[in-house]
Design brief:
Elements: H1 3-10, H2 21-38, E1 42-45, H3 48-55, E2 75-79, E3 85-89, H4 94-100, E4 106-108, H5 118-128, E5 134-137, H6 146-158, E6 162-165, H7 167-173, H8 179-202, H9 209-222, E7 234-236, E8 257-266, E9 269-279, H10 284-294, H11 296-303, E10 308-309, H12 310-323, E11 330-336, E12 351-352, E13 363-364, E14 369-377, E15 384-393, E16 398-400, E17 409-411
Parallel strand pairs: 1-5, 3-4, 5-6, 9-17
Antiparallel strand pairs: 1-2, 2-3, 7-8, 8-9, 10-13, 11-12, 11-14, 14-15, 15-16
Helix pairs in contact: 5-6, 8-9, 11-12
């Protein structure tokens, strides 16, 4: 064995598991039960979120836009009748796998194929006898890309597998979180508040969006936060009308609104928080709209409880915005599931929205977590009131994650 192999396969790697083995064993069992219910023999997970949920695996690079010789072929295979999973990865990540997972069966792509590919995974699964029936793939995941996914499906079908869409299996199981996951979400909420306080304290005429962003990220890290799955916008003035803009060298001027949208992250679990600020006293009509928009969170507080029907919350908020004559000034009103997220998106699987029916009949069960967004455009196009809270539902209570007020905060 050469020195390279010693490093990859034998070097000491201090483990950093997010949860104890029992937590991951329980998740694996839930997946196997779901496979049995759906009549699926094998599920091959390729999305970072699903790989992390089932094993703890996390990485900084998932080959999202990589050259063709480095295809995004890594993943985790689960079989309905086996109490272990198989992790497929490149040997270059062997030490990484030992840090974050307790995998007892990791199979590495041959060196001749660099980062391997569909052929290796399919051959290994076929040799295990895991391709004799229905094979679930995460067809709605961004990885692997289209051509590689098509190649994988073609090869697996050639070994006798019937391909089915297994995207929603882990996504739906992640909706209700365990007690350990809920505790991590509460930690993430504390981290989010620390970041928002630091951003607020950094606001003053003459600073740039990126300077405030830097102070915010520093505070998040000092509080124990991890890298977020989306770049967190700090936006000044009329730029707040474009809520998904990137922070830049734009300089904060007196009399401008400020929007800050961030997430506290712990073990990849995100708690979303957005707040609005104003440098100096806002005009009376701006202050009035902002106050009425911010008060929508009181509607949520009055209803908040475990088992709250999504439709009940939708209808109450819709009525409030019509009553306050704010509905036609809205950007978007609603929210989405929060939890595990990796680079590119922290928007979860379940979306609630007063105008959408897809998830309207769900309830916010104990163990669920969603954000709640208020987006109302301010008079004369001066900006947008943008507030976000995360709602945490537990067995006996439900609460708003942040301790910070949702009202427009005046700076200076």
């Amino acid at each position: 064995m050469d020195y390279r192999d010693e490093v990859y396969f034998e070097s000491t790697a201090d483990p950093e598991p997010a949860f104890p083995p029992e937590e991951y064993a329980a998740r694996l069992q839930r997946v196997r039960e779901r496979l049995a219910d759906d009549g699926i023999e094998c599920l091959f997970l390729t999305s970072p979120e699903a790989m992390n949920w089932i094993s703890g695996y996390q990485c900084e690079w998932y080959q999202a836009q990589s050259p063709r010789q480095w295809p995004a072929a890594s993943g985790i295979a689960v079989h309905v009748d086996h109490d272990g999973y198989v992790l497929f990865d490149t040997e270059r990540e062997a030490a990484l796998g030992r840090i974050f997972t307790a995998s007892s069966d990791t199979r590495y792509f041959p060196r001749t194929s660099l980062r391997g590919g569909a052929e290796f995974v399919v051959d290994e699964l076929a040799a295990l006898g895991w391709l004799d029936d229905r094979l679930g793939l995460e067809l709605w995941s961004y990885r692997p890309n289209g051509p590689l996914s098509a190649r994988f499906q073609e090869l697996a079908a050639g070994k006798g597998a019937t391909i089915v869409d297994g995207t929603d299996i882990v996504r739906e199981l992640r909706w209700v979180k365990s007690p350990l996951e809920r505790a991590v979400m509460r930690e993430a909420a504390t981290i989010a508040d620390a970041g928002m306080r630091a951003a607020r304290d950094a606001l003053a005429p003459g600073v740039t969006e990126l300077e405030v962003y830097g102070e915010m990220v520093r505070a998040l890290a000092r509080a124990g936060g991890e890298n977020t799955a989306i770049t967190q916008p700090v936006l000044f003035g009329t730029k707040t009308n474009a809520a998904h803009a990137l922070s830049s060298r734009r300089v904060l001027q007196p009399g401008e609104p400020v929007m800050i949208d961030l997430s506290g992250v712990r073990h990849r679990y995100h708690v979303n928080l957005a707040r609005m600020f104003h440098v100096g006293e806002p005009a009376p009509d701006v202050a009035d709209v902002a106050a009425r928009a911010a008060a929508s969170i009181d509607v949520v507080k009055d209803l908040l409880r475990p088992g709250l029907p999504v439709r009940e919350l939708n209808e109450a908020l819709l009525a409030y915005y019509h009553e306050q004559d704010l509905w036609t000034s809205r950007g978007w009103i609603g929210g989405y599931e929060m939890g595990i997220a990796f680079y590119g998106d922290w928007v979860g699987n379940v979306v609630w929205d007063p105008l959408a029916e897809l998830h309207a009949d769900k309830v916010f069960e104990p163990g669920t977590a969603v954000n709640c967004e208020t987006q109302i455009f301010l008079p004369r196009h001066v900006g947008q009131f943008f507030s976000i809270d995360t709602l945490l539902f537990d067995d006996d209570d439900a609460r708003i994650a942040s301790e910070l007020p949702a009202t427009l905060t005046v700076i200076g």
